[in-house]
From TrEMBL:
Domain of life: Eukaryota
Protein name: Phytocyanin domain-containing protein
Pfam families noted in UniProt: Cu_bind_like (PF02298)
Annotated Phytocyanin domain residues: 22-125
Keywords on record: Copper, Electron transport, Glycoprotein, Membrane, Metal-binding, Signal, Transmembrane, Transmembrane helix, Transport
Bilayer-spanning residue ranges: 150-167
Originating species: Acacia crassicarpa
Amino acid sequence: MSFVQRNVVLLVTMMMMMCEGAVYKVGDSAGWTTLGKVDYKNWASSKNIIVGDTIIFEYNPQYHNVMRVTNETYKSCNVSEGTPLETFNSGNDSIKINSYGHHYFICGIPGHCQEGLKIDVNVIRVSATKTPTPSMDDKCPNCSNKASPFMASFGLIGLAMSFLALAA
């Protein structure tokens, strides 16, 4: 493989890494569970989730699920009042955030929402806030698809090298 081809492959790889949004595991190491009394309200308020980020729900599908619901269903914890907008039950659900505003999720297993297994992910416009960007530690610690600041810098260097190689 020629020098130019290697740099183009490197450039494309680095650009793909830089363009991905952050990945957050709901509940951090505890995941999506009724055990341990995870404070999902506090978890959500401590994150700066923006459009393009992904939230991951990890749980045992024998005991839990994830339902995207309306505000009313979120407040009442009564799925029978309104059908869920979406239902997930794989135990490892990745949901890409594609819009601003509130995204409401509950567990549809009877009693779980009332026990606190629900979350309101409020996605605000980046320009509307002055809060700091989450650190790498805040993001999903077990996710392998996040770029480190070093790798992002390396991508920019690769881009510059590719242009120099193409110009030669």
